[in-house]
Amino acid sequence: MAHKFEGPKDKTNPLAYVPIALASVIVVGWVFASGFLHGRIEGQKPEEEKIVRREKPRPNIQAMAEPTDELVSKGKGLYGLYCASCHGDEGYGNGDKGLSLNPKPRNFHEMSGWKNGVSVGGMWKTLQEGIPGGSMASYQLTPEEERIAIIHFLREAWIPEPGEVSDDDIAALPAGSDGESGGGEAGLAGGGPKPEEIHIALASMKTTLPEPIQASAPESLADMPGAELYAASCADCHGPGGGGMESVRVLTTAPYMRVSTPPFSSYSRANWLTDSDAFAKVMVESEFGSSIHGYATMSRQQIADLQQYVTALAREGVTH
To answer: What is the pLDDT of residues 278-315, one digit of tens each?
Structure first.
């Protein structure tokens, strides 16, 4: 009698594999879907990511139209950084940098001769646009909340008859964006301690920079008519001998910015060294926002004398 051998029977319940199979299907499906959506499956282009950029809200200067102790105090410090070099420490228009300017810097203690007036709106216009044809540069690149603080300091400290702030003054100031107040006491609402702040210009002053040894102008050029004018108007940035300067502090629209000036000898082929009209254009016109400011009030004779002197420095080849 033949016997058919049968191995041991698997007594496991087939239903036990259902959860495992179902989990496998879910994992594979998730991997496929993820790769498809992100472009990792061949032939698919990934969806472009949208980057949302948040712009810094513009401060509401209209909310700072009235002076506060905080704004006046802040303006006093900023005046020393931006204005004192030309207008003097006490606002009499006798700062060291203003001695060579024509017309002379404003004496804030006098009421006559204000082109745009002493109102908040008028002074804002002056700082925004400068005085075309004069020696007052535009401070449009200076933060708006700093400009209004300087205005309040000048009106409270020195201007004899500043007048009241009018609706027209408020309308002349920027309204800001998203309802942000931006500064002053109004800008500090919301609770919490105010973090300690230090102006970037003060911070830059605390950085010790090596003082390079600057070459003097050749003695043979000392008697030229443009020598004294150059020393008063140009030497601080271009060097006493025209050899250029490293890390020059810009005292017009951004006193915390530093630039370098090359020696005049590097401009040996520049047309303004030989072309009087081209030199006059460089002297009179200045590109807005640049570190070069024009001298529109110089006479033609002064510009001619200065060109001859600068050309002589370029020929001497002085370097720093």
So the answer is: 888 777 765 444 445 556 667 888 888 999 999 998 88
* Whether the predicted pLDDT of 227 surpasses 70: yes
> Same fold for the domain at 61-186 and the one at 219-316?
yes
Domain 219-316 has CATH 3.30.565.10: no
Q: Which two tokens stand for residue 24?
A: 């496998």
Task: Please give the sequence-ordered ranges of beta strands (E in DSSP) within 192-237, or none if there are none.
Answer: none
Q: What is the CA radius of gyration of the chain?
A: 34
Residue 320 in contact with residue 215, Cβ under 8 Å? Answer: yes
Q: Which residue, chain included where needed, has tokens 């081209």?
A: 278
Domain ranges (residues) in the chain: 61-186, 219-316
- Tell me, what DSSP letter sits at residue 134? S
* The CATH number of the domain covering residues in 61-186: 1.10.760.10
DSSP 282-317: HHH---TTSS----TTS-HHHHHHHHHHHHHHHHHT
Q: How far apart are CA 312 and CA 221, in angstroms?
A: 8
